[in-house]
Amino acid sequence: MGKMRPVFKHGDAAYIIIAQKPIQHFAKIIGEAPNMEYVQLYMQSLGCDHVLRNENHFMFCETIPDVDFEVIE
Fold this sequence. Notes:
With 73 residues, the protein is of the alpha+beta class. The chain contains one helix and four strands; from the N terminus they run E-E-H-E-E. The chain has a four-stranded antiparallel sheet with strand order 1-2-4-3, with helices on one face. It is elongated and about 60 Å long.
């Protein structure tokens, strides 16, 4: 069985967190704003479709799709 990954709920959506990196990992100089182009490229290299950000980290995620279901009586 594969490695269990954490799930993060944000609003009405749920995401599987594939990786987390400190925000400063994407800045040229410590204390500078992150280069969002680098963030986007890293997200794509992981095969993720969404990036969330908290106070200290970017979270690279896969969106968990909504499930359409029909109630059977």
